Automatic annotation (TrEMBL):
Gene3D superfamilies: ATP synthase (C/AC39) subunit, domain 3 (1.10.132.50)
Molecular-function annotations in GO: proton-transporting ATPase activity, rotational mechanism
Keyword Ribosomal protein found: no
InterPro entries, sorted: ATPase_csu/dsu_sf, ATPase_V0-cplx_csu/dsu, V-ATPase_V0D/AC39_subunit, V-type_ATPase_csu/dsu_dom_3
Any Pfam family matching the protein: vATP-synt_AC39
Superkingdom to which the source organism belongs: Bacteria
Name used for this protein in its record: ATPase
Source taxonomy: Bacteria, Bacillati, Bacillota, Clostridia, Eubacteriales
Signal peptide (from-to): none
Length: 333
């Protein structure tokens, strides 16, 4: 499965493509993604259509690998589908906040029809926030959303999204704890580093852009990181500003996030994902356990889709090939 994915030479061709149509045609005619893109009309094409079809591949690959997993391993692996489910719910909730016709968002929704208990087909037809919540009453999401009286952009939308993200990561941590610690040592370590990085990006942005309170930063931080334990988490959120936060991390494994002063804000997300890309690439190569390799495979696929999406977006802004490379997770230097 891994061998069929796109290579460095394919990325270079995609980067050199003149426009969205050329990117689409290359993906369709020369890569594994062609099977998922063949029914799209190149003369009436929108970038989101391509992105959703690529995510459909992720669902199919995840379901395929789940067939070979059992018990707690399978429950943990299913979290990859839960993540897509949460992302789809957020898309619909944003639609409610904008007073969109949710049916018009159908093409943006990606989820596993085989493993979900969310009634997406009924959600597409709802007209208001209360009706939306009631349709989720038989799912865990109702418990997360019931406390919010509104989904307006001006009021609760950001906190709704953070609450759904927190639900996902709390459940992921619970499933991670249930795994055999000896067999899945490398996978568990990789996930805990992932938690660390997400916390650092969240706290940095919360301090710099949103002026969030200590309580809010703590409430929506993730527990169970590898280096950022409760004590260090408290120290970070107590920082007076981002400069003080960076000083605390200067000798840590995560100093690379802050080493480039002029481009911290522009490339922080990419630096985090590039670090994780090589972390999961190593996990895939180690081959210490089947679950770790399978999980790393899907994560690497996710990064591949993210890079293709970035290339597609770059065509919209007519960026030069040399510039596009700076926005990709995978390095070609």
């Amino acid at each position: 499965m891994r061998a069929q994915k796109i290579k460095a030479a394919d990325y270079i061709e995609l980067i050199k493509a003149q426009n969205l149509t050329a990117v689409f045609q290359y993906l369709r005619d020369h890569t594994y993604y062609g099977e998922f893109l063949k029914n799209l009309d190149p003369l009436n094409l929108h970038r989101t259509q391509i992105e959703v079809r690529l995510s459909d591949l992720k669902v199919q690959e995840t379901e395929k690998l789940m067939h070979y997993l059992y018990g707690k391993d399978k429950s943990f692996f299913k979290m990859l589908l839960v993540q897509l489910e949460v992302e789809s719910l957020i898309v619909l909730i944003r639609g409610i906040a904008r007073n969109d016709d949710l049916e018009s968002l159908r093409g943006l929704i990606v989820y596993s029809k085989k493993y979900t208990n969310v009634p997406f087909e009924r959600l597409f037809r709802v007209k208001d926030w209360e009706q939306f919540k009631k349709l989720l009453i038989d799912t865990d999401y109702y418990r997360v959303l019931e406390i919010f009286k509104d989904a307006s952009i001006e009021q609760d939308l950001v906190m709704i999204e953070k609450s759904l993200d927190r639900y996902y990561y709390d459940l992921l941590k619970k499933r991670l704890i249930e795994l055999d610690k000896k067999i899945n040592r490398d996978l568990i370590k990789a996930q805990r580093r992932h938690f660390d990085l997400l916390n650092l990006v969240w706290i940095y942005r919360g301090l710099k852009f949103y002026n969030l309170s200590r309580e809010a930063l703590i409430a929506y931080s993730l527990r169970g990181g590898l280096e950022i334990n409760e004590r260090r988490l408290s120290q970070l959120v107590d920082a007076k500003n981002t400069e003080e936060m960076k000083e605390q991390l200067i000798n840590s494994d995560y100093a690379f996030l802050f080493n480039h002063t002029k481009t911290i804000d522009l490339y922080m997300e990419r630096r985090m994902k590039r670090y994780l890309y090589y972390l999961y690439l190593k996990l895939f190569s180690i081959g210490s356990d089947n679950l770790g390799r399978a999980f790393a495979y899907i994560q690497l696929l996710d990064f591949e889709i993210a890079d293709i999406t970035s290339i597609i977006e770059s065509k919209r802004y007519r960026m030069e090939p040399a510039e596009i490379k700076y926005y990709l997770i995978r390095s070609f230097d």
